[in-house]
Design goal:
Radius of gyration of chain A: 14 Å
Strand content of chain B: under 5%
Shape of chain B: globular
Order of helices and strands of chain A: HH
Number of domains of chain B: 2
Helix content of chain B: over 70%
Distance between the termini of chain A: 12 Å
Number of helices of chain B: 22
CATH class of the largest domain in chain B: Mainly Alpha
Structural class of chain A: mainly alpha
Structural class of chain B: mainly alpha
Largest interface: A-B, 27 and 34 residues
Largest sheet of chain B: 3 strands, mixed
Oligomer: heterodimer
Order of helices and strands of chain B: HHHHHHHHHHHHHHEEHHHHHHEEEHH
Largest sheet of chain A: none
Strand content of chain A: under 5%
Number of strands of chain B: 5
Distance between the termini of chain B: 37 Å
Strand order of the largest sheet of chain B: 4-3-5
Chain lengths: 61, 549
């Protein structure tokens, strides 16, 4: 394995899927001091980051 | 704080990936150099991120957030003054000698440049320090996870140590470095939402500034007089003590970080490693220190958020985790705590891999068994990983039993580290410097550090030889100890060098400035040139300082 981008991309995509699923399935979940659906937005960010990593890995392969 | 099942799932996912990377890298290890130095084969973007991740231990994360809550934005001096200039210096000026000499470790450079005794002194003190500092950070982690999650000290220490052991045992330095990059991304993505949420809740930077004393939101305005700022330091002590002596001593000579740059696949990559690393490093304060400042502002808003009290002040060390509990729901909470665990692991793996190389090449091959087959040293390197982790775990339990031991050890390490940069500066840039000069300079500098500590008092610390001077804070005392130690080492090294016989210039090729062919830059694009990168970093860093001044 010469390329770190693949495992990195897979890890963050998996994290993103879990967080987005939580955000969508339990949209009412809130931490005490925030009105934001933190899981959903963080999940989307991780999906994007993971996706970019996988795309970079594919492009160089 | 209680965790849901999904939080444990995220922990498990992370552990799975970390171990998986180690397992995939296993087949790349054929020789001792593959295992201990990555065979100089790692791309520069990876070494750069590992360069800062190895330094981002859990203690650093928790401590910097705590300092943010305690001192405000002036904590950023530890980055903008106390890291960036030194990172630029090591990349532009020192890496040609480290990488060009083909030394496999920093102590080995000292052996090539000076002599055996200087190398051994550095190797032995460094190896001892790495074991204890990884023990100390493991202790901090065990304590924190016990307090926050109710996990037993032994189980969090043993679990995290076992995982670090497995992946460094399998893939050696490459595995540690690759995982550090994964950990770096996780730390950034796991902590920055917290910074955004906490700052937004506190009313943005303006809202925070309006709720806090002005000294909390200005990094330079109150530095001219030590009585005006809560750190109790003044500009000269800060710039000379932290910005020059301590910072250059760490970033330019500590094998833990230098090892990452030496793993790069080319001289140009090795030089660019710390320079590229400096870009993200400049912005780390925004997701580590700023949440601490936001915590103090939130407490003034009557939202029901309060830092726990310890004795007669706040327990600032809990700022990071209490904020997570307030802003992260189950799911993201798991990610945040996994990021904390990741920062701990990257710090520990950094210590273990550095210890490995120094033990195997500088102590074992240098003194115990010379000239064996390479496969023998590979076996020793692997075995040392196990021993290093076991010693760190032992140190963690020892520190837990004898709490004062930690303070004592950190003090002794500070004495040994303070003069180091003078030795390297003279060694690399003055060819007249001799081994006897370097060795006696190091001893004298360490002695001067201990003496300064013995003769001065700050917050009831030091003064065991009588109190000649009183410092307003231990931080100021530490900076001045470093200044005295460095100056003593610098002067003694020059004096003794002039009195002893220098090595012939022919032996100093690739080790000293003036008798080394500086690496050619032909064909490099402008953004690949170390000088250009360094200037860009410097300009951005100055802008940040003015902005938050």
């Amino acid at each position: 394995m010469g390329d770190l981008r693949t495992p990195c991309g897979l890890f963050f995509t998996a994290l993103g899927v879990i967080l987005c699923a939580l955000g969508v399935l339990f949209p009412g979940t809130r931490a005490p001091l925030t009105e934001t659906n933190v899981n959903l937005y963080s999940g989307i960010t991780m999906l994007v980051f993971g996706g970019v990593m996988l795309w970079l890995a594919r492009r160089s392969a | 704080m209680t965790l849901a099942r999904v939080d444990y799932l995220i922990f498990a996912l992370y552990f799975g990936f970390v171990l998986g990377i180690g397992w995939l890298l296993k087949k790349r290890v054929a020789t001792s150099e593959d295992f201990l130095t990555s065979g100089r084969s790692v791309p520069v973007w990876i070494t750069s991120l590992a360069f800062i991740a190895a330094n981002m231990g859990a203690q650093e994360m928790i401590g910097m957030c705590a300092s943010g809550a305690k001192y405000g934005i002036m904590t950023a001096h530890f980055y903008w003054v106390g890291a960036i200039p030194a990172m630029l210096f090591v990349g532009v000026f020192m890496m040609p000698f480290y990488y060009g000499s083909r030394a496999r470790s920093v102590p080995e450079y000292l052996k090539l440049r000076f002599d055996e005794k200087t190398r051994t002194f550095n190797a032995v003190t460094f190896a001892t320090m790495t074991v204890f500092s990884s023990g100390i950070s493991m202790y901090a982690l065990g304590l924190l996870f016990g307090l926050v999650l109710g996990w037993s000290f032994a189980s969090s220490v043993l679990l995290s140590a076992a995982i670090v052991l497995v992946y460094t045992y399998l893939g050696g330095l490459t595995s540690a470095i690759y995982n550090e990059v994964l950990q770096f991304f996780l730390i950034v993505l796991g902590f920055s939402p917290l910074a955004i949420l906490a700052v937004a809740k506190a009313g943005g930077w303006e809202g925070m500034a309006s709720r806090l004393p002005p000294v909390m939101t200005h990094s330079w305005k109150y530095m001219s007089n030590s009585a005006e700022n809560p750190m109790g330091v003044e500009i000269f002590g800060l710039v000379a003590g932290l910005g020059f002596v301590l910072s250059f001593g760490y970033w330019c000579t500590d094998f833990l970080v230098v090892q990452r740059a030496l793993a790069a696949n080319s001289m140009s990559g090795a030089r660019r490693t710390p320079l590229i690393a400096a870009f993200p490093k400049m912005f780390v304060p925004f997701f580590v220190i700023v949440p601490g400042i936001a915590a103090m502002a939130l407490m003034k808003m009557g939202l029901g958020y309060n830092l726990p009290v310890k004795g007669d002040s706040y327990n600032y060390d809990l700022a990071l985790t209490t904020l997570m509990a307030q802003f992260y729901p189950s799911g993201m909470l798991g990610v945040g705590l996994t990021a904390l665990m990741a920062s701990f692991m990257s710090g520990m793996a950094g210590n273990v891999t550095a210890f490995n190389t120094v033990w195997t090449y500088d102590i074992y091959q240098g003194h115990i068994r010379k000239g064996a087959a390479d496969s023998h040293y590979l076996r020793v390197g692997r075995l040392t990983t196990v021993v290093g982790v076991a010693l760190s775990v032992g140190a963690a339990f020892l520190v837990q039993l004898y709490n004062n031991l930690m303070d004592l050890l950190q003090l002794v390490f500070a004495f040994v580290n303070a003069p180091l940069f003078a030795t390297f500066l003279l060694g690399m840039f003055w060819k007249r410097t001799t081994g006897h000069g370097a060795f006696s300079g190091l001893l004298a500098g360490t002695g001067a550090a201990a003496l300064t500590h013995g003769l001065t008092v700050a917050e009831g610390k030091g003064g065991w030889l009588g109190a000649v001077h009183q410092f307003p804070s231990t931080m100021a005392q530490n900076f001045w100890i470093a200044i005295f130690a460095w100056t003593t080492c610098f002067l003694v090294t020059i004096l003794v060098s002039l009195l002893t016989r220098p090595r012939p210039v022919s032996e100093l090729h690739n080790l000293v400035y003036g008798v080394t062919d500086m690496p050619p830059l032909g064909g490099a694009r402008w953004y690949q040139r170390p000088g250009v990168l360094a200037v860009v970093v410097l300009v951005v860093c100055v802008i940040l300082n003015i902005w938050f001044g």
